[in-house]
Amino acid sequence: MSKTNRKKTLAVNVDNILIGGDAPVVVQSMTNTDTADVVRTVKQVAELAKAGSELVRITVNTMEAAEAVPEIRERLDKMGCDVPLIGDFHFNGHKLLSAVPECAKALAKYRINPGNVGKGKRGDEQFAQMIEFAVKYDKAVRIGVNWGSLDQKLLARMLDENHQLDKPKELSEVQHDALIESALSSAAKAEEYGLPANKIVISCKLSSAQELIKVYEELSDKCEYPLHLGLTEAGMGSKGIVASTAALSILLQQGIGDTIRISLTPKPGEAREKEVIVGQQILQSLGLRSFTPQVVACPGCGRTTSDYFQHLAQDIQTYLLDQMPIWRDQYPGVEEMSVAVMGCVVNGPGESKQANIGISLPGSGEKPVAPVYEDGEKTVTLKGDSIAEEFQQIVETYVQSHYS
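The structure corresponding to this sequence follows.
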């Protein structure tokens, strides 16, 4: 799919990060620190931003958290970290924004869950209050509907209406309809309260990949608001990565989605940045964006009984990731470079020629030499005990000569 072959949506400006319109799909993440702990929250926001999170969401659930937001913003700015902050509000957002207007000003965007703003008339009033703050301070809003916190009164009404049909829909279909209705009716109310359409982002998140795909396919046909994609709770490890990749890839390939978040459950003490890297890799694998040079490496087989090529591939991948914060500014376009590290003569030379720069290491029983290819042409043959160091230097020289 072409990078520009996306379903047309409105463009929402979040502190100079565009979501929707012709802008590339935006990667975002969320902290898991207590927002009232300013030091830890600032540290994690900065780490996520360095990893490539273009927006970072923080929980604003208590008065202490709300009061901490302005200081978090100030400290990040002093560090030179200008990543926009999104405030995640549930239940008491109207009270917190009213009590701490500095928090309302410091945030770039508010996330509001229609199912958690209150019931009935009171809920409408509290939702209106939050929208009024967004209008007053010119902030964007994500209206984020979740499967696990869907407005039960709305669902009950739609179930009653469904029972009266000659051919009632399945329960899951009614639930899908309720998610979409909640999001779109809330967006319509927000516009009635004065929030421009180009300040609204919508999400309808579930934990099932297949259900998510169905809902977003229908949602994208019914509105022009930018859409935030992601499973509500993707899960841990490979399960979370695979489920997110499966669901989001199908939608993105159809041109659906303007910003994504991969909601991985980290292991205790594990760095939060993995979900950012997974989101980037999904977009890069689909050819929608480029974030870092890609390493092509063979999986290994009986011809590669030595694990040398695996170590070299890992070392090169780590080296490229470590260099990207520096290279991103010094060498524009380097993020589109491909590097091949292959383990034997079967596919080694061919894959190396296809990459910008590649090395074909000797397999079991092969001559102990490693030809290096640059832009399809063999430039040198390495041998001896320092192949890894020499190849890394060749990669660095290539970057300097081709992207400066």
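The chain has a mean pLDDT of 95.
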